[in-house]
Amino acid sequence: MDLAPKRLESQDMSTLKSTAESRLKNFMQEVTGRALVMMESATQGQQGIAMDLVQEAFISLHKSYSDKSTEEWYPLFYTILNNKLQDWRRKEARRAQPFSFFKKVQLDEDDNELENIVDESTPSPLEFLNQALTADEIQGAISSLPHRQQQAFMLRAWEGFDTHTTAQIMNCSEGSVKTHYHRAIQGLRSALAHLNPYTGGSSE
């Protein structure tokens, strides 16, 4: 019996697995820092929880989508990460309110869409702020935003996703993304105005 075909097939599978793991390692190195910043803001600075959520998202990505291209991984990863975060937030809400299982857990109260919002451009986080602001000041302002506004801002301004992709990741309409992003920009400008001389505040 000729076992060569099976041996070759086994070698091919091993090569594909090695390639996928190598790609995932490079992908993780590229996005881990930004993903952690996003999760730390969403969990109010709980670094351990943020790390767990990011790691779980990577594990799920590798387990279910190792055959996808690296470009496809970006929205898939953030969709998985968003789902992990939502699950964690639901558990936290139920833990805080022991009898909340009798009613629907309301995680966000700013989902009402504003009418006639023009889709804004996606500046870098510093582009509309004073360049002298520190990363800590900006991250602190982001952390003070409602969760969905944080998501919309981080996905669009930090990750550079368009409105359509952001809506898919957040599992909401494009109108909601525009609303959350618009409110996030307004909230950040307001929160940091006293540090930004270009908006009439003072950095002293």
From TrEMBL:
Enzyme Commission number(s): 2.7.7.6
Record-annotated RNA polymerase sigma factor 70 region 4 type domain positions: 136-185
All residue ranges annotated as the RNA polymerase sigma-70 region domain in the record: 45-95
Name of the top EC class for this enzyme: transferase
Single GO biological process annotation from the record: DNA-templated transcription initiation
A single GO molecular function term of this UniProt record: DNA-directed RNA polymerase activity
Keyword match Zinc: no
A Pfam family reported for this protein in Swiss-Prot or TrEMBL: Sigma70_r4_2
Keywords, comma-separated and alphabetical: Nucleotidyltransferase, Sigma factor, Transcription, Transcription regulation, Transferase
Family note: Belongs to the sigma-70 factor family. ECF subfamily.
Record's protein name: RNA polymerase sigma factor
